[in-house]
Amino acid sequence: MKNTPFTHKHIALGAKMAEFAGYNMPISYSGINDEHAAVRNNAGVFDVSHMGEFILKGPDALDLIQRVTSNDAAKLSNGKAQYSCLPNKEGGIVDDLLVYCIEENKVYMLVVNASNIEKDWNWISSFNNKNVEMHNISDKTCLLAIQGPNATKILQPLTDMDILNLKYYTFAKGKFAGVDNVLVSATGYTGSGGVEIYFEDKADNANKIWDAIFEAGKAQGIKPIGLGARDTLRLEKAFCLYGNDIDDTTSPLEAGLGWVTKFTKDFTAKEIIAKQKQDGVERKLVGFEMVEKGIPRHGYTIKDYSGAEIGVVTSGTQSPTLQKAIGLGYVRTVFSAEGSKIYISVRDKLLEAKVVKVPFA
Amino acid sequence: MNFPDNLRYTKDHEWIKLDGNVATIGITDFAQRELGDIVYVEIETVGKALSAESVFGTVEAVKTVSDLFLPISGTITEVNPALNSAPELVNNDPYGEGWMAKMTVDNVADVEALMTAEAYSAMVS
């Protein structure tokens, strides 16, 4: 099991630790509900250094990115980022990722899921026939997400970069807490605002930045947040989690990721996905809430009133904000309309649920 | 972690307290910590005669779900009604207000065979 540059901090803070994607990660500190509320109402810090970062360089870097991703990276100018997918040849999803434009037409950074680093690297490399310079900088890159309505206000005194006015999906690079070359990006997977910061794991950078953030946020009550609350936060916003809601067998259109699938350019499996768009998909990822008492979990079967199988739950939890049981799951398209009555097979019972609009909260 | 001396414990992380031939049961401090924020306790076995280690209910936390195993043979007679509206009592007070059920026990000597606080504490440490 690998450590991140912050693992010792989590253990010293008394976090409940567990293995995630090969890393020793904090699952929770003060409890999922408490951490969840801290991010929704104030500010919280996530160590997400397990995520992968690739640098792609050279005159053909953009061409390679365009061919392997579904979104249109040609729209990116310096300092902008976009959410995207890596489709596979069957129209499934190799991974979802962020594409950062460091220098237009020259230097890009791809940020991928920890569990997919090797798979993505091999996949993208297999399309690299024009000698784009590729660097896997995952192991030496620290990534902290500071999320919540008060996050940028807390961090602003640590840097000359204008973090307070950083627009969603843009980034800046500069000195932060005395450390050079820190990339501050107005992104995150909580839906509560804030930033993610990337910096090199060298000298005492990791300790310096972690300590500076907690010192700056002390009066405001900033908290460390584990992966447990990261999951409930993203689920309330219906953001897809790779391996749960999307995988090699789900198409971006089924998953509701048509908005990052641009048919104005060529990419892997474009024809297959375009045909799905034209013909309509047979199943769709929907949000639902439980009508009867019970908590949906990944892998539970979804049925219709007669007990016939119509789909599967991909994510589920008790929403800390709504105090309701919510979930995401694939259902046959005829059951995907808002208000559709569906039934979740929870152990030996069929519990009523209804399809609702997302985000949930 | 807290494991009161007047209770007996199981390897499935339940505790039991005997009073005559009626016992109160719940989950241990260790169990509630492992589960995290508890959101729903489901026990629908009231009135059923069950054998030791059979599943008598489930406990749902935000992150996970776990079965509840009966410490000894007997019949559930009552479920803690407070848990319906305040399941977090299990986290806050696992041996007190967060008790889960009461049961009549088939054989009071079965309780003696369970782990003492000392033995349980050694198992989870």
List low-pLDDT spans of chain A: none
Mean pLDDT of chain A: 98
Return the average pLDDT of chain B rounded to an integer: 96
Globular, elongated, flat, extended or rod-shaped: what is the shape of chain B? globular
Shape of chain A: globular
Straight-line N-to-C gap of chain B: 9 Å
Give the SSE order of chain B as H and E letters. Answer: EEEHEEEEEHEHH
Class from secondary-structure proportions of chain B: alpha+beta
Q: Strand order, biggest sheet of chain A?
A: 10-11-12-9-3-13
Q: Approximately what portion of the residues of chain B adopt beta-strand conformation? A: 35-45%
Work out the radius of gyration of chain A.
21 Å
Oligomer: heterodimer
Helix content of chain A: 10-25%
Tally of DSSP β-strands of chain A:
19
Supply the number of helical segments of chain A: 8
- What order do the SSEs of chain A take from the amino end to the carboxyl end, as H and E? HEEHEEHEEEHEEHEEEHEHHEEEEEE
Would you write up a description of this structure?
The complex is a heterodimer of chains A (361) and B (125). Chain A is of the alpha+beta class and 361 residues long. Helix content of chain A is 19%, strand content 35%. In chain A, the strands form four sheets. In chain A, strands 10-11-12-9-3-13 form a six-stranded mixed sheet. A six-stranded antiparallel beta barrel of chain A has the order 14-17-16-15-18-19. In chain B, the strands form two sheets. In chain B, strands 1-2-3-9-8-5 form a six-stranded antiparallel sheet. A three-stranded antiparallel sheet of chain B has the order 4-6-7, with no helix packed on it. Chain B is globular and about 35 Å long. The chains are: A alpha+beta (361), B alpha+beta (125).
Descriptors for this entry?
heterodimer, A: 361 residues, alpha+beta, six-stranded mixed sheet, 8 helices, 19 strands, B: 125 residues, three-stranded antiparallel sheet, 4 helices
Summarize the structure.
The complex is a heterodimer of chains A (361) and B (125). Chain A has 361 residues and is of the alpha+beta class.
